[in-house]
Amino acid sequence: MSRHRVRVADLAPEMTLGPREVRHLHVLRLAVGDALRVFDGQGAEASATIAVLEPERAVLQLGDVVERVAETPCPLTLAVALLKGDKLSDVVRAATELGVASVQLLITERADAREIGAQKLTRLQRIAEEASKQSRRAVIPTVLSPVPLAGWQWEGQLFVAQPGSPERLGGLLDWAAPVNVLTGPEGGLSEREVAGLLERGAHAVTLGPRILRAETAPVALLGAIAAMGR
Amino acid sequence: MSRHRVRVADLAPEMTLGPREVRHLHVLRLAVGDALRVFDGQGAEASATIAVLEPERAVLQLGDVVERVAETPCPLTLAVALLKGDKLSDVVRAATELGVASVQLLITERADAREIGAQKLTRLQRIAEEASKQSRRAVIPTVLSPVPLAGWQWEGQLFVAQPGSPERLGGLLDWAAPVNVLTGPEGGLSEREVAGLLERGAHAVTLGPRILRAETAPVALLGAIAAMGR
Question: Taking Cα atoms as reference points, which of A148, A142, A2 lies closest to residue A65?
């Protein structure tokens, strides 16, 4: 199957390409009858064949393989403080449905727990596996052993849920690099912890003016990302 | 306490107003020393006093009453299909934290149940009360007895969660009128049900390309609204 991927407005039986995509086909030295992949940027992907290829115009015919790509454009990580009881199970399950590639457990100043047993970690990993199947994902998220917040290194963007922050996720999210979201324990992150994260480049984003429970905040924040089509 | 409300960029000890707000003060025939309310549009509100009032410039001094307004600009309703077991409790709790004014239970074609006992309804109402207190809201959401989906009348906008819909909540949400969000039962809404809602003016919006459980979808959708600062 061709590895060339071309973006189209919508998957349709016949798809006329824009000038940039047509140039792209010429650069790739493709010809009428050649196969490629089309995607709509909304999660749908399919095989297609070049039916018409002129200097400034191209028409593709949709193949029969249409699939929904269930993964985010770049890996999405939920970093979440250790929570009491079964709350982490609920969070891992919902986070998996909402597309995370990994869940990083964190030890924070006010965390409900300072550690997690090996058995419980295994159980969380199994929950991620089940939830991944149920939500028809190709990827099983990894649940990572807790590390102290101050020592956690992330790659790409980090968004920290902060009640009443003036910044909003919508204007900041950029899938050019991995995306991380972080939510605190029941008592919240300390001011020092938040300041430390912001110094390291994190964005504090609002989840509205109300106080959310520690197990609601990650679902709400990941839901906001999902509602952007990811 | 003054009922005049003036929007400011941020609550600060001294706030200089823009030309439009200054004109507004003159129109209201206010003078130095008069009291009013300031709000930042992000949920924070406070009393303030006019310290300086010139033809094109005004400075306000922040009063000591600062409160976070925890309610959405217009009422927000979650309409949710009847779900099995304790799932509705979890949904009502999270929906309350995320700012709904009411939860309308719905009987749908594939709903897990066709009715709900009076005792269970009372219990859901009590959960809304507790969650309202915990999230420091002034409003206790009402949990409304189930009605058949086809007979449910809503006011304002209605957003229905539909996997893979090309429409996104972000571009559509408008607080000029009440906002309603609707999520289906475990088996989803039927095509006929969705078509009927769209005919009646509902918007189908995406929650990303993955399959969400019936109890995750409402939290994700309400989370997306909360992440817009509401």
Answer: A2
B219, B95 contact by CB (below 8 A): yes
CA distance A72 to chain B (A): 9
With a cut of 50, list the residues of chain A below it in pLDDT.
1
Interchain CB distance below 8 Å, A227 and B205: yes
Q: What is the ipTM of this complex?
A: 0.75
Kind and range of the H or E run holding B175: none
One-letter amino acid at A190 equals S
> Which residues of chain A are at the B interface, by a Cβ-Cβ cutoff of 8 Å?
10, 40, 42-44, 68-70, 93-94, 97-99, 134-137, 164, 166, 168-170, 205-213, 216, 219-230
pLDDT digits (tens, 9 = 90+) for B129-163: 999 888 878 778 999 999 999 999 999 999 999 87
Degrees, nearest 5: CA angle B33-B36-B40? 130
A166–B10 C-beta distance less than 8 A: yes
Cβ atoms of A58 and A16 closer than 8 Å:
yes
Q: What's the whole-model pTM score?
A: 0.76
Tokens of A116: 């997690």
Question: Which of chain B's residues have a Cβ under 8 Å away from the Cβ of A211?
Answer: 97, 134-136
Instruction: List the domains of chain B with CATH numbers.
Output: 5-68 (2.40.240.20), 76-226 (3.40.1280.10)
Of the candidates B182, B160, B219, B90, the residue with the CA atom closest to the CA atom of residue A220: B219
Min CA distance, B87 vs chain A (Å)? 12
Whole-number Å distance between alpha carbons of A224 and A205: 11
